[in-house]
Amino acid sequence: MNLSDFDYNLPERLIAQTPLEDRSASKLLVLNKNNGAIEHKHFREIVDFFEEGDTIVLNDTKVIPARLIGEKTDTKAVIEVLLLKNIEGNTWEALAKPAKRVKIGTIVSFGDGLLKAKCIEIKDEGIRIFELIYDGILYEILDKLGTMPLPPYIHKQLEDQNRYQTVYAKNIGSAAAPTAGLHFTLDLLNELKEKKVNIAYVTLHVGLGTFRPVNTENILEHHMHSEYYELSDATAKILNETKANNKKIIVVGTTSVRVLETVMNKYGSLVACSGFTDIFIYPGYEFKIVDNLITNFHLPKSTLVMLVSALAGRERILNAYNEAIKHDYRFFSFGDSMFIVNKK
Fold first, then answer.
1. Based on C-alpha coordinates, what's the Rg of the chain?
2. Which domains, from first to last, does the chain contain?
3. Count of CB atoms within 10 A of residue 40's CB?
4. pTM of the model as a whole
5. What are the φ and ψ backbone dihedral angles of 107, each rounded to 5 degrees?
6. Chain centroid to CA 268
7. 45-65 core/surface letters (b: 16 or more CB in 10 A; e: else)
8. If 0-12 CB within 10 Å is exposed, 13-18 middle and 19+ buried, where does residue 171 land?
9. pLDDT digit string (tens) for 280-297?
10. Among residues 261, 263, 340, which one has the least CA distance to residue 298?
11. How confident is the model at residue 304 (pLDDT cuts 50, 70, 90)?
12. Helix, strand, or coil (residue 288)
């Protein structure tokens, strides 16, 4: 299976640079994964697709202002550090740029020494392991010194940092937003509750595994970096009851998919657990729990396009993407949405 199989041509004008003023005003392309049929809706109509007893699964991770600009304490060279994952205590995995300037023992200072990062290990692909040195509460310091790590294809400054958070973001730890959830408003969630739809939460702290480009033509040679996840006992019970009652589980975002499928592969059922996952889902994968998926439109040749292709079929996904391009849908993080449904 080749990387070029998951390519498509996207006009640059369709890459969304800013979020819509109303989160729920985005377009919604509904794709029937069984026959390829397509409907064009708006996201605020998503509630119409739910029935009493269905369950929606949301990733409640919260993005940290993980992008830091500092300088080496010896040469004063400017270094950018993107915090990816808290390994334990004050030890973090991060991307350093330019990485060649960061050796073992290098200390990078941020905010006149308010925060320092000492390199203690060198890994491939620009990754470094840092020990963070500071007084006080780390996340308060990051709020002062860091910025939201927006993807490189977004060239405009984000006026309101909270627009790169979901309205239900809770558990701090992501280096990127679970963007499929950005379309939800508190009003929409209340409408779902009024319809007696269950709302369940998982956590996956988005890191390098989700947004790292694939650099091998043979996709089977691609290595996914691990990301931390949690599935609570309450969520496991809700989802198991939903399945037992033959109701639908609607999953929001590829990150939530990866949590549920990781747990199913590991335990054979949904149970409370936590850990790290490097699951790589591509066509040929047999889904254990996920049927319906709310997701955004993803970058060409990305692992996310591969995941949705595994769920709905590569040709149907690429056809849907081309249809979205024809109808001027907005793409990527601040773009419009797709709903992959399982309808006979």
1. 20
2. 3-63+160-341 (3.40.1780.10), 67-145 (2.40.10.240)
3. 12
4. 0.93
5. -115, 125
6. 24
7. ebbebbeeebbbbbbbbbbbb
8. middle
9. 999 999 999 998 999 999
10. 340
11. very high
12. coil
Residue type, 334: F
The stretches of 185-313 forming alpha helices (DSSP H) are 186-194, 208-211, 233-244, 254-267, 303-312
Q: Of the candidates 300, 301, 293, 340, which has an alpha carbon nearest to the alpha carbon of residue 15?
A: 300
- Give the tokens for residue 249: 């589980």
Write out pLDDT tens, residues 50-103: 999 999 999 999 999 999 999 999 999 999 999 999 999 999 999 999 999 999
Looking at the chain, the whole-number percentage of residues with pLDDT higher than 70 is: 99
Contact 317, 308 (CB under 8 A): yes
Q: Positive or negative CA dihedral for 44, 49, 54, 58?
A: negative
Query: Do 156 and 17 meet the contact criterion of CB atoms below 8 Å apart?
Result: yes
CB atoms under 10 Å from CB of 111, counted, come to 15
